[in-house]
Amino acid sequence: MAGLLRFLLQVLCNLQTSSVCHQNIGNKTVPFSLSKNFSGARAEGVAQNMAGVGDEALAAGQTQKMNLFQAITSALDNSLAKDPTAVIFGEDVAFGGVFRCTVGLRDKYGKDRVFNTPLCEQGIVGFGIGIAVTGATAIAEIQFADYIYPAFDQIVNEAAKYRYRSGDLFNCGSLTIRSPWGCVGHGALYHSQSPEAFFAHCPGIKVVVPRSPFQAKGLLLSCIEDKNPCIFFEPKILYRAAVEQVPVEPYNIPLSQAEVIQEGSDVTLVAWGTQVHVIREVASMAQEKLGVSCEVIDLRTILPWDVDTVCKSVIKTGRLLISHEAPLTGGFASEISSTVQEECFLNLEAPISRVCGYDTPFPHIFEPFYIPDKWKCYDALRKMINY
């Protein structure tokens, strides 16, 4: 509580802060050179897959080639232009953020709408809740998903429950929390985590993870406009690796609707974020080497997730493989597996397979072994087919 009060006082007294937080953050402000993050097949696979990414048809109007962070900047720009109550705040957002997602927005919209905060994640989210309760649009940035845990109480016990505790008299549904997410190739313990499962156990919020620039803009705008608090996790390895044509004007992609990227008849592959590109490679390998037809599904929204699309696919294929970077035990793959087991038991031809990170903190020198790459996924798929 004392930390939150200090934070609020500092924000009220010093909204003009631009580089102060940046100078004092130390190790937390060191951005990654994403062009060199992942060597070998994984980075190549992402680039190849982006060439064929086909979300919904591109919205009518002008488009520009954007990478993922530029698409996010475009979404934030659209939101600030459309909604005069919208504000963006977080550590270093005034100078553009460590991944440059807010670059230029302070100059364009002013220090009262795009401003820095002290290093207090609990305070950032608590401040955002207060702004949202007044009816304004609050877009908070947590510099890395690994840093979101100090704000856990504010998210789980305040933001998610505010509407319920007041009998729908009050709400903070106009709060969106953005955060870079997932492994990046050399992030080690505190710059590699995927904490979506922690928040998937929390009714009252929505949790979203995009895989491409087109998705990122459309889903982020949907989160900002949604009537519920949303957490928007951004795969940081894709900030610069993923590039495609993105509409300049605002558009929306519906939340809680998975996308069937590729139809198939033998195995259903489910993932989100960066891992979608991995399972697309696995689908190609399975077709080429085994003659196996894979249906590839991007979940996109973790909470509430699209049970219907996944179950319909599994009823058709009889097999399910789920993959995510987070540790296996307690990961969201467990929830998907359990639900599918309950809904599709008589249709299953083999046990459901989960290909995930190991049950250990993210290791620096062993990151290539920790990541559930295409070879691990392919091996699990082959075992399912031979079951």
Automatic annotation (TrEMBL):
Coiled coil: none annotated. Gene3D superfamilies: 3.40.50.920, 3.40.50.970. It is found in: Mitochondrion matrix. The keyword Transit peptide applies. It comes from the Eukaryota. Keywords: Mitochondrion, Oxidoreductase, Signal, Transit peptide. Its cofactor is thiamine diphosphate. One of its GO terms (cellular component) is mitochondrial matrix. Residues 1-23 form the signal peptide. One of its GO terms (biological process) is branched-chain amino acid catabolic process. It catalyses: N(6)-[(R)-lipoyl]-L-lysyl-[protein] + 3-methyl-2-oxobutanoate + H(+) = N(6)-[(R)-S(8)-2-methylpropanoyldihydrolipoyl]-L-lysyl-[protein] + CO2. It is an enzyme of class 1 (oxidoreductase). InterPro entries: THDP-binding (IPR029061), Transketo_C/PFOR_II (IPR009014), Transketolase-like_Pyr-bd (IPR005475), Transketolase_C (IPR033248). Its main location: mitochondrion. GO terms for molecular function: branched-chain 2-oxo acid dehydrogenase activity. Residues 66-241 form the Transketolase-like pyrimidine-binding domain. Heterotetramer of 2 alpha/BCKDHA and 2 beta chains/BCKDHB that forms the branched-chain alpha-keto acid decarboxylase (E1) component of the BCKD complex. The branched-chain alpha-ketoacid dehydrogenase is a large complex composed of three major building blocks E1, E2 and E3. It is organized around E2, a 24-meric cubic core composed of DBT, to which are associated 6 to 12 copies of E1, and approximately 6 copies of the dehydrogenase E3, a DLD dimer. Together with BCKDHA forms the heterotetrameric E1 subunit of the mitochondrial branched-chain alpha-ketoacid dehydrogenase (BCKD) complex. The BCKD complex catalyzes the multi-step oxidative decarboxylation of alpha-ketoacids derived from the branched-chain amino-acids valine, leucine and isoleucine producing CO2 and acyl-CoA which is subsequently utilized to produce energy. The E1 subunit catalyzes the first step with the decarboxylation of the alpha-ketoacid forming an enzyme-product intermediate. This is 2-oxoisovalerate dehydrogenase subunit beta, mitochondrial. It comes from Myotis brandtii (Brandt's bat).
